[in-house]
Design a protein that fits this description.
The chain has a domain of 142 residues: Rossmann fold. It has eight helices and nine strands. By secondary structure, the protein is α/β, with parallel strands linked by helices. The strands form three sheets. It has a four-stranded parallel beta sheet, with helices on both faces. Helices cover 32% and strands 15% of the residues. Pfam families: PFK.
Length: 299
């Protein structure tokens, strides 16, 4: 989102000063919150990592007869696409019992009741929460909102899982674990989606071809159909309809109680995570590109 705003500003400046420079935006945010495109490259692989991790945590929690509550904190400041993707694990029968997104105001008392009801009934409860959940007055629930900011001036969030885990433990006396996926969810390429990788290459290829053909001031976007099989094609969108507009999870894709997602959400994301990345390995570990940095003055 911020990157597309930067592209838009650079493009407008170049036009203003009369400098010929073609600017093409290539979306890549795992937050999936860009306007004007069905989804963003990177989102699907992050979603697949999140769903896989949640399924594995569920399995671990259910190995023991001991009662347990698990709170998993997932990225997403204002849009809940990533946290909602935890529900994909439900397709395999091991998804979270509760999912909380920033699209719905958070009520701490109701949260405690939701968790307690499930825990008292089953002896287990797994919760997926977006880092950006907030109260009705707009305050982030996370206690780690500090003066620290990222490169775009946004407050850095964190510590939510630990905070909620402590509250649940004090209220119920249950064994509670707070897990923050943090950076792992955006760099877990070992469970990347082949569909996502192929579309990322397609987006880059489309951007280069458009720029070479003389196009500027556009962002590559995806236009997709899911009826009768998943199909995706690229289109070009004006940068000014993308910059600083956030695409959020539709309220109608979230259940009435605001603590889970509906089938429409699953149907939207599931086709995007299909296929295995199968990247190159070295000693059975992922092999990453090793770039030789050369100064232009040395060439």
């Amino acid at each position: 989102n911020d990157s597309m705003d930067t592209c838009n500003k650079i493009s407008k400046y170049m036009q203003k000063v009369g400098y010929e420079c073609r600017i093409m935006g290539v979306p890549k945010t795992i937050d999936n919150d860009l306007n004007g495109t069905d989804h963003c490259p990177g989102f699907a692989s992050a979603a697949k990592y999140i769903a896989t991790s949640c399924a594995e945590v569920w399995q671990d929690a259910h190995v023991y007869d001991t009662g347990m509550v698990t709170v998993i904190e997932i990225m997403g400041r204002h849009a809940g696409w990533l946290a909602g993707s935890a529900a994909l694990a439900s397709v395999a029968g091991c998804g979270p019992d509760l999912v909380y997104l920033p699209e719905v105001d958070f009520d701490m008392d109701q949260f405690v009741k939701d968790v307690t009801d499930i825990y008292n009934k089953t002896g287990k409860c797994m919760v997926a929460v977006s880092e950006g959940i907030h109260y009705a007055d707009g305050r982030f629930v996370s206690e780690a909102e500090t003066s620290a900011t990222d490169g775009f001036g946004h407050a850095q969030l964190g510590g939510l899982a630990v905070k909620l885990a402590d509250i649940i433990k004090n209220k119920t006396g249950a064994k509670v674990r707070g897990i923050e996926l943090s950076l792992l969810q955006r760099c877990g390429s070992h469970v990347g989606s082949k569909t996502d990788i192929d579309e990322a290459f397609l987006a880059g290829k489309t951007a280069v071809e458009a720029a070479v053909a003389g196009t500027t001031d556009k962002m590559v976007a995806f236009q997709c159909s899911r009826e009768g099989g998943y199909k995706c094609e690229t289109v070009l969108q004006p940068l000014d309809i993308v910059a600083n507009f956030e695409k959020k999870v539709p309220r109608e894709w979230i259940n009435e109680a605001g603590n889970g997602v509906k089938q429409e959400f699953i149907d939207y994301v599931l086709p995007l995570i299909q296929g295995e990345a199968n990247g190159p390995k070295e000693h059975s570990l992922p092999r990453f590109a090793r770039l030789k940095k050369v100064l232009t003055t040395d060439m």
